[in-house]
Specification:
With 223 residues, the chain is of the alpha/beta class. 49% of the residues lie in helices and 13% in strands. The protein has a domain of 156 residues: P-loop containing nucleotide triphosphate hydrolases (Rossmann fold, 3-Layer(aba) Sandwich). β5 and β6 form a beta hairpin. α1 packs across α9, α2 packs across α3 and α4 runs parallel beside α5. Bound molecules: adenosine monophosphate. The site of adenosine monophosphate has 18 residues, from α2 and α3. Adenosine monophosphate binds next to α2 and α3.
Length: 223
């Protein structure tokens, strides 16, 4: 399954819930890239300048990364893609890759949130530097300021959540990623969800969008 949506729409939060409750792994290209940047690997060194500027990492780099990650088998045969694909070229590359594996997408779910809410959310967002748990200082604050409820780690803000970078990321989303909605609608895979609500309401809709028969239902068959 692919989760689409602007930065801060809640893809990561929802993917983590699905992972916990349904045991389907989240594959977040943003998380993989941030870890590569932190470790100073060649991938991290390539990606860093693009990420800091709120731009997309080039398609060839991302397709190599996704090929390696899925090909490694670590994610098994079913996973939730969070933050990939982000361009038509990436979507076409993913289709080819999955076809080579005799596989394909079950569903593409777009979590829709107006820009004004995104700007507010990302201004309030912070993450645990140890376990990656996500917080929002207005809607989901930690019990103790600056400390993760789950593991006691320190909370940090992402560098690319700075206001001018958020504006750039939103512009990139509308120009390069939003056209994927039409791409997947044509393939009858797209479902959209109102993401400007609380986490559990969105999760409830995600389960419904996946199909009334549960997580195994093939949405293509249902149309
Ligand atoms: P995210 O955590 O998904 O918001 O990703 C953070 C940053 O990583 C993005 O702003 C991009 O610079 C980069 N990135 C993540 N996924 C992709 C992708 N599929 N294509 C290009 N760049 C990506």
């Amino acid at each position: 399954m692919v989760l689409l949506g602007a930065p801060g729409a809640g893809k990561g939060t929802q993917a983590k819930l699905i992972e916990e409750r349904r045991r389907i792994r989240q594959l977040s290209t943003g998380d993989i890239l941030r870890s590569a940047v932190e470790r100073g690997t060649p991938l991290g060194r390539t990606a860093r300048s693009y990420m800091d500027a709120g731009q997309l990492v080039p398609d060839e780099v991302m397709l190599d990364l996704i090929r390696e990650t899925i090909g490694s088998g670590a994610y098994g045969s079913g996973f939730i893609l969070d933050g990939f694909p982000r361009t038509i070229a990436q979507a076409e590359g993913l289709d080819r890759l999955l076809a080579d594996m005799d596989s394909g997408l079950d569903a593409v779910i777009s979590i829709e949130v107006p820009d004004a809410s995104i700007i507010q959310r990302l201004g309030d967002r912070c993450t645990c530097e140890q376990c990656g748990e996500l917080y929002n200082l207005s809607s989901r604050p930690p019990k103790k300021p600056g400390v993760c409820d789950r593991c006691g780690g320190g909370l940090v803000r992402r560098e690319d959540d700075a206001p001018q970078t958020v504006a750039r990321r939103l512009e990139v989303y509308h120009r390069q990623t939003e056209p994927l909605k039409a791409y997947y609608a044509e393939r009858r895979l797209l479902r959209t969800i109102d993401g400007d609500r609380d986490v559990e309401s969105i999760y409830g809709d995600l389960e419904k969008a996946w199909g009334p028969g549960g997580w195994e239902l093939d949405l293509q068959a249902g149309g």
